Amino acid sequence: MTQLLENAFNPEIFRKNGHELVDQLADYLNACKNKDALNPLPWKTPADMLKKWQTDFAAPSEEGVKEFFAAVIADSLHLHHPKYMGHQVAVPAPLAALTELLSALLNNSMAVYEVGPLSAAMEKVIMGWAASVLGMGKEAGGILTSGGSSGNLTGLLAARQHQADYNIWEDGAKDTHPLAVMASAEAHYSISRAVKIMGWGEKGIIKVPLNKRKEVDPDLLEQCYREAVQQGKRVVAVVGNACSTSTGSYDPLEEMAAFCQEHRLWFHVDGAHGAGAALTEKYRGLVKGIEKADSVVIDFHKMLLCPALTTAVIFKNDELSHETFSQKALYLLANEKKENWFDIAAKTLECTKKMMSVKIYALLRTYGPRLFSDYITATYDLAREFAEMIKESGDFELALEPASNIVCFRYTPSAPGAHDPAELDELNTRVRSRIKEDGEFYIVQTVINGAVYLRTTLMNPFTSTNDLIQLLQKIRD
Ligand SMILES: Cc1ncc(COP(=O)(O)O)c(C=O)c1O
Question: What total of structural domains would you count in the chain?
Fold first, then answer.
């Protein structure tokens, strides 16, 4: 054993570094909460950032771990800062992050029971809990996977296997049977990516038009379906958003489920961002009908306070999840015909995967589901308050009433000529760019009906009304 290896595994060095890291992270959390000195985005150009870290990389040293931790914190995007209002990435609960450290060191690889016994059992418990929250019935269950994109692919692979009238997994896709999926025109790009991975190309995705609130118009489902059938396509699934990425709109899941039932189609709900509304009393109505879905994706690393990546795919009939990947890997899955809940690789895209269940389990065991419901209710409430503020401002325009915690709006000052559409786009693009480089707030932008809008996702539980007043003022300035 070399001294270097000895040091890398030395428990006392680990203890010292661990205490140091937790101290620094606790100070960071305090600094964020108090908005001390720190900005959400300490902006550096990509070239400057690369230069700094390339220089640091050139001189390995066992000294300076403390300084390294501090520099990593300083140069990152600070999601715990109340003025972070950007993309829909969780502001992790500190306990979930600590649990991530625990599972990272244990590093059980999860593929079969013996290499992840505890996390397999915890995953089963969590999936059962999630299925019951969604009301998906006694046969429901699922798996955790690495991200919503992987989750959507997993759900659609199950739909394909179940709905194709031949064994597509074994035989491969046949040109004579072009398969397709119907989805909201605002579906996340991972849906069309999944369709393309399955080899169906652009023609394999049928975009269902939306109403003014950017929800699927249920009256157009039949027409889209008929057109697809006339073109010789075999539609296997319909995808509903709960909610959409850009505007946070919830599709009419109840009507979509009824449509799927009538045509014997698989109903997949992309609830990566917003399926957690089912946990709240106030906003549960937004996901009415989700219980009828055949598969649902929920990202715990969006609205459920977990670090990335932590995605659940819940199936109405858990048995079907075994059909999706009927892979032969004799060294690992010695008896792949025998279905069981604990050899998880049989049901996932991954072979090795992280012990994702432990952090969710830790939050539920410590705080109960109320933690999630308090959080979602508070952020959805704040979005509605922000929307009112925008409507009353006189110089901002709300894109649409928020259904979730995503609020899209734009600056519309009444200066002469400022209402020319191209000028407004240019102005709002410039605003977003200046805000990003200034660093005091972090917001993003989107395009709605061809026009540029500023986009905020109120992810931080400490964002206050006053922060939002200040954001509007900052934009004016
Ligand atoms: C609605 C929706 N589905 C899926 C995804 C993809 O999830 P992930 O980034 O975890 O792959 C996103 C990401 O923002 C999303 O908003």
Answer: 3
Which residue segment(s) compose the domain that 247 sits in? Answer: 103-367
Task: Give the tokens for residue 16.
Answer: 């010292």
CATH number for the domain harbouring residue 293: 3.40.640.10
Which letter does DSSP use for residue 332 in this model?
T
Helix, strand, coil fractions of the chain, as percent rounded to 5: 50, 15, 40
Same domain, residue pair 359 and 393: no
Q: Which of 190, 269, 298 to mutate to test the pocket of ligand 1 (most atoms within 8 A of CB)?
A: 190
Q: Can you tell me which atom of ligand 1 is nearest the CA of 311?
A: 10
In a domain, 64, yes or no: yes
89 found inside a domain: no
Q: pLDDT tens-digit profile of 81-105?
A: 999 999 999 999 999 999 999 999 9
Nearest-10 crossing angle of helices 253-263, 221-230: 30
CA of 249 to the centre of ligand 1 (A): 14
Sheet with 141-145, side-by-side order of all strands? 141-145, 311-315, 295-299, 266-270, 234-241, 179-184, 205-208
Same domain for 141 and 220, yes or no, is: yes
Ligand 1 test: best mutation among 88, 144, 149, most atoms within 8 Å of CB?
A: 149
Q: Ligand 1: which residue has its CA nearest to atom 7? A: 148
Where residue 232 falls (left for φ over 0; alpha for ψ -120 to 50; beta otherwise) is left
Q: Are 229 and 223 in contact (CB under 8 A)?
A: no
**What is the rounded CA–CA span in Å between residue 356 and residue 359?**
6
Residues 164 and 232 in one domain: yes
Please report the pLDDT score of residue 386 as a whole number.
Answer: 98
The Cα 413–Cα 397 span in angstroms is 10
Check whether 417 has a pLDDT greater than 70: no
CATH number, domain at 454? Answer: 3.90.1150.10
- 427 and 291 within one domain: no
323 falls in which pLDDT band (50, 70, 90)?
confident
| Closest-lying ligand 1 atom to the alpha carbon of residue 274 | 1
Do 403 and 426 fall into the same domain? yes
Alpha-carbon distance of 156 to 270, in angstroms, equals 11
Residues 296 and 290: beta-carbon distance below 8 Å: yes
Backbone Cα Rg of the chain? 24
Burial group, residue 414, by CB count within 10 angstroms (0-12, 13-18, 19+): exposed
Residues 350, 388 within the same domain: no
